Amino acid sequence: MIPNAAILFNRLRMRQLSLLLALHEHRSLRKAAEQIGLTQPAATKMLHEMEDVIGLKLFDRLRRGVQPTAYGEVMTRYAQVVFSDLGGVRDELVAIESGNIGKIRIGAIMAPAPQLLSDTLIMLKQRHPRLAPSIQIDTSDVLITALLQDRLDVAIGRVPDNWDSRELMFEPIAEEALSIVAGPSNPEVRNRKVTLAGLLQYPWVLQAHPSPMRKVLELVFMESGLALPINILETSSMLLTSSLLRQSDMLAVMPTLVAKHYEERKTLGIVPLKIKRQIPSYGIITRKGRILSPASQVFILEIRAAMESTRLV
Q: What secondary structure letter does DSSP report for 115?
């Protein structure tokens, strides 16, 4: 039987976890032993001891090296998290010692970026000049993958329908309205009698599946008794999308807040056809059971405050 967590905690050692990571990287006992400063017999003995503690085979011994079993893959993944957390602990200690409150890796979908996220980051830097945030703008599925792999501390997005959410905490912020957009010179921007059927004549730039925006647009066409446009180009890049629209007669769907941001700068126009469906709420996503760093806690407090200010305006 697999021992309980207390036994694993008491009997597994950091050196053994280092060996796990080295074996996973090199697939060779000799090279792994060299990397962590052991002889090959000592590394072999350490691996046997670890497998005895866990009660499972972690690596298959092959003629030309070793191969992780399914159990070995799981153990390696958690070893990576342990060392990542230790690195985070050191960074946080150094930051506090130097008067900083540390670093934070933030992921966000495009919708909150022009206003909510920008307002939050401005306030964050005013109140905590030495805090060092790094920002990744991407789709929710990419952000959640990065969050679960410990490459992000906090994500602002949504949990896709097909995602196992048991490892995640989700705090809703706002629903997301959508608008159809085009280049400023596209005649549909000024067409007050525009219809969805009339827009089928144009090429469309769409996000690929399983994008929530793509799903909503498909539902809108289906509910109108229309097939999805057949002349499409797929990309998740908002920068590329806006560039394509400005230089062609293509159409696209964007979060309304983003569309208004481009419209105010006269780089894109909003087609006057209301999309009644909205994308489900996006929100603050963190990993369940993980202790938030001071920097992460400060960021979450600031984004809540910025959201409240937006509601009061």
A: I
Cis peptide preceding 210, ω within 30 of 0: yes
Which residues touch 228 (CB under 8 Å, ≥6 apart)? 217, 218, 221
CA-wise closest residue to 21 among 47, 49, 48: 47
What ranges in the chain are assigned the alpha helix state H? 5-11, 14-26, 29-35, 40-54, 70-97, 118-127, 140-148, 212-223, 238-246, 256-264, 294-312
pLDDT band at 242 (very low <50, low <70, confident <90, very high): very high
Question: Kindly report the CA angle at 216 between 203 and 229, in degrees rounded to 5?
Answer: 25
The number of helices, as runs of H, and strands, as runs of E, in the chain is 11, 12
CB 154, CB 282: distance < 8 Å: no
Tell me, what's the pLDDT at 311?
55
Q: How far is C-alpha 94 from the chain's CA centre? A: 27
pTM: 0.58
Whole-angstrom distance, CA of residue 204 vs CA of residue 197: 13
269 secondary structure, DSSP code: E
- Amino acid identity of residue 77, one-letter, is R
Residues in the chain, total: 313
How remote is the C-alpha of 83 from its chain's centroid?
A: 21
Instruction: Tell me the pLDDT of the chain averaged across its residues.
Output: 86
Tell me how far apart the alpha carbons of residues 82 and 300 are, in angstroms, rounded to a whole number: 24
pLDDT of residue 92: 65
The residue to which tokens 């920008």 are assigned? 118
- DSSP annotation of 113 reads I
As given in the structure block, the two tokens for residue 288 are 């369940």
Contact 59, 23 (CB under 8 A): yes
- Residues 6 or more apart from 148 whose CB is under 8 A from it? 167, 168, 287
Query: What is the end-to-end Cα distance of the chain in Å, rounded?
Result: 59
Cα(73)–Cα(20) distance, integer angstroms: 9
